[in-house]
Input
Amino acid sequence: MGKTLNPEGLNLRKDTWVTGLALFAMWFGAGNLIFPPYLGVLDGSNVAGIIAYIIGDAVLAALGILASSKFVEAGDIKGIAVLSRTWKWLDVLLGCLMVFFICPVFVVPRTCATAFEVAIKPFAPHFSPVIFAIIYFALTFFFMFKSSKVIDYIGKILTPGLLIFLVIMIVKGIVDPIGSVGDPQIKDVFANGLMNGYQTMDAMGGTLFGVVVLASINSKGYTDSNQKSKLLAKAGIIGTSLLAVIYIGLYYLGACVGSQYDSTVEQTTLLVNIVQVLMGKGGLAILAIIVLLACLTSAIGVAAAGCEYFTEISNGKLKYEWLVIGFCVLGAVLSVMGVQKIILIAVPILEIVYPPFIAMVLLGLFSKFIKRDMVFNIAALVAFAMGICQVAGLSFVNAMPLASFGLGWIVPAAVGAVIGAFIPGDSRKLNTPSNNDTPKAV
Output
């Protein structure tokens, strides 16, 4: 892509790269930092595990953004793009469940708690978690208060620092490895990697991040839907490609200590020990910075997207600024109380909502070839029902194809999509914007 300015003076290449860097940072939370080294310990020289993890995480996340871009190209969308061809009530139900539980209830407070435990507590064991939560969410509030600037803040300011520290750590481990790559400690490394990549739910995050990304793109003055679609798609590829590269580097660090640890090692402890051996006490300080940046960028991106979503679907009745305050206060309270207490509530809900989102992402890639909305409606309903059955522990789910990967819903949802193709129903008409209109965020 050349360095081209459109007639309004917009720099497409710069905006695409800034958006791509921001997407990487929003995806890359503490869990993304901690798990790949642990996978390296388990898989050793068998790289099938990290390939499968990248497929289940980064590739699905990229597909979430690409599917969203297809709907942007089609016209004016409110809410979450990949749900736009389902019934309105189903669109709102799935969207609200996902956004509420993934934003203020689960991901945002978890980032604060993780940052405190990994980056602060080892250096200041008596530091108050309440004071840290206040500081953490004050920073979150500052960076996300102006929704149109969130992408620029993350992409231009926070992400470069995060990438620099990650690259320093990984390059040091490659140039001066702790040990040699060990043998695999588990049998089915591909299945394990794919299942864990899928369970990060980053694909659902990709569909949510489309909301705040499009708000940023719109605020810059982009009005052509095709142009915005291409910018979003290319930025998604940049962000997920960076994810894959960093995952491989972190995996290698873990593989080099496979002979020293087994599956019982705590993931956080493993990462801390690797960094300390590679870089000494100074390395622990670098790790603290990496974790703080990773957690902060994820919190800002997820919370901003959630606030933008609720503002969008309420037609502005729920003000973005007030939602920011509410998200930050709720996140701070839950992080201090202990995130483990809410995981029992949040995670099952997300596991129920995730299958229909993935189904809509996969169908959304071919949206312009699918004539009937009932394909989306029936597939989403079946995937939603299968998610409920899976969380409820109903035994028949385990008999489904791909159930060992946590994907027992795929075949029933595919059958539902085929049935939907034979049920009459008009396709939802999207409003193609004129040159003077600025479409709303996806």
Residues 13-339 form a domain with the Amino acid/polyamine transporter I fold (CATH 1.20.1740.10). Residues 1-5, 429-442 have pLDDT under 50 and may be disordered.
